[in-house]
Design goal:
This protein is mainly β. It has a single domain, classed as glutathione-dependent formaldehyde- activating enzyme (gfa). Helix content is 5%, strand content 36%. The structure holds zinc ion (ZN) (2 copies). One zinc ion binds next to loops. One of its GO terms (molecular function) is carbon-sulfur lyase activity.
């Protein structure tokens, strides 16, 4: 099994990743826009136990319902807890650049900055993640 270590931008938090992600994508939802102060964010989805904090103690913030972990020193967003699904979604900007291989876009219904590329653009989520497979037309 592949194991890799990543860290926040200041190094106060170190995270061990066991195995590869379940899926990688861009999220355009309004929660991500608000907490990341960004138009959309790169996400890598892992089983919860595959993301382990091995140095430092992240600060938890909740905008609506999803607990999001960030570094208390540099403020970098690390991952969100998707407890109902037993998953954690990692800020994929923390991965080495060649390890982020986006497969699709989700929550395009909220997009403020449409990204026109060759990937599927789901209005909400793919059916395999509880969505409807409905697409947007960009
Ligand atoms: Zn930090
Ligand atoms: Zn989102």
């Amino acid at each position: 099994m592949k194991i890799s270590e990543i860290q926040c931008h200041c190094g106060a938090i170190k995270i061990k990743l066991s195995g590869g992600p379940i899926a990688q994508f861009y999220c355009h939802c309004d929660d991500c826009q608000a907490v990341h102060a960004a138009a959309y964010v790169p996400v890598a989805l892992y089983p919860a136990q595959a993301i382990e904090v091995i140095k430092g103690v992240p600060t938890e913030t909740v905008l609506r319902t999803t607990p999001r972990m960030r570094c208390p020193t540099c403020g970098t967003f690390l991952f969100s807890e998707l407890t109902n699904f037993g998953l954690r979604s990692l800020s994929a900007s923390l991965l080495p650049r060649d390890e982020f291989k986006p497969q699709f876009h989700v929550q395009c219904q909220y997009a403020v900055l449409p990204v026109k590329d060759e990937l599927p653009h789901f209005k909400a989520f793919p059916a395999k993640f509880g969505g409807s497979d409905e697409m947007v037309d960009w």
